[in-house]
Amino acid sequence: MGKTIKISAVQMCSKIADKKANFDKVEHLIERDIIDDTDIIVLPEVWTVGWSPKNFQKSADKLENSETLEFLSKIAKRYNSWIIGGSFITDEGGVFYNTCPVLNRNGELVALYRKNHLFSYYGCEEGKFVKAGERPVMVDIEGIKTGLTICYDIRFPEIYRAYRKAGADLLVNCAAWGLKKPVPWECMTRSRAVENQTYMVALTQSGYIEDDEWNIGHSRIIDYKGDSLSEITDQKEGVMSAVLNFDEMYEFRSKCTILNDIKDKYEVL
After folding, report:
1. CATH T-level topology, domain 4-256
2. Per-residue pLDDT for 60 more than 60?
3. Active site residues
4. pTM of the model
5. What is the domain partition of the chain in residue ranges?
6. What is the secondary structure of 195-215 as a DSSP string?
7. Cβ pair 198, 221 in contact under 8 A
8. Torsion over CA: 22, 23, 28, 31 (sign)
């Protein structure tokens, strides 16, 4: 069968500022819907607290003795799976970040990505409560180079191109994307896969947030040609899964060598 992985992603509606309830929900959805021998489990952005920037700092974990990392470690070991832990808020010496953790099958923390671009428009004040990360982070998951991004990062194709140039085979965007922006979510997630010839996990929360705001709840696993391999098209909670065949992707790349046509410089006259 070649180089393949089984990947599963959890679409859920987080309860605002109730970490215990959100732990319980993740545990329930994975137990109910996970496919056998899953290699990677992905969670959405700020699933521990919900999209509520005013509650971010109150929900934050210190990296040492973090209850969120302890919970994710337990899930990783129980299912013998890697965990791309969506994001949670970390308190790092009084500086707060929107942070994506990656844990291996043994439940060990192997990488942290801090959201590089913070959404602070239309009344949203993410940048008031957390600090932006300074660099991309790519993690090697058993030979699969995986580029990590969070939500608003999707609007910046430069970070995805940087991952692809560094050898990425899989791109992940963990989000809590608003219902009022369906076209950007649809177009940009698919475009990042197509333009970089990579598999793409576009995972967002679903359901009601607060203050008459809703998550979009349309998560997809997309292949290197832009086709959806698995998706949850509505607001329901559950797990979407797919088998990613990297040998097929490498074969496609060898026949369609578009990245070789990128110029070193694009000077506008």
Report:
1. Nitrilase/N-carbamoyl-D-aminoacid amidohydrolase (3.60.110)
2. yes
3. 45, 115, 151
4. 0.96
5. 4-256
6. HHT-EEEEEE--SB-STT-BB
7. no
8. positive
